[in-house]
Amino acid sequence: MALKTPKNRFTDTRTINISSRDFLYVSNLLSLFRLLIVPILFWFIYKENYPLAVVVGGIAIVSDLLDGFFARLLKQHSELGFILDPIADKFAIGAGIFALVLSKTEFPLLAFIIVVSRDIAIVLGNVYLAYKAKMITRSNWWGKCTSFSLSIACILFLLRSMGTSLPNKIEYFCLYVAIVFVVLSFVSYSRHMVHVLKAESIQSKTVFD
After folding, report:
1. pTM
2. Are 119 and 183 within 8 A, CB to CB?
3. Of 14, 99, 115, 11, nearest in space to 53 by CA
């Protein structure tokens, strides 16, 4: 398929090659670690053990920042990493905000619904894209900003629930910024998916004509 959109925005499902060595990359180990601590993070928030939740959440944020850093530093980019990193982000943030809604924090239910709806839409879109065009989108700058801003908002809500002295409504301000990134990232991913589907449709018509 002649795809004019930069290839680094997509992964061709027909050429995915994951080796056992990929699981030993520092960046991928960090993503796996972040995925493994998701149940711990959920449990601490749900049980209202906010100090430990802040510690675990902070570790998750640092691991997210470091996996990209080490991938670039050690030149350890891999198809596994392109897939694993956004999955770990979605599970960590999804579980975190779900636990916040269930616990006694003031995290808005509407914000949770918006975030989860966006993630479900992107996952379903990628499933359809993989079926129709044998491609899936990779995490981009907007997606990374979304994950980071949501993570910071969650930490601030936890700190507020602990009685920590914070600027007035700072957690809501960060959440509003995060929601803006949620919308922008959804638009960005959607545009990329539509572009690929249009290119695939044009190619199919050309082949059959």
Report:
1. 0.87
2. no
3. 99
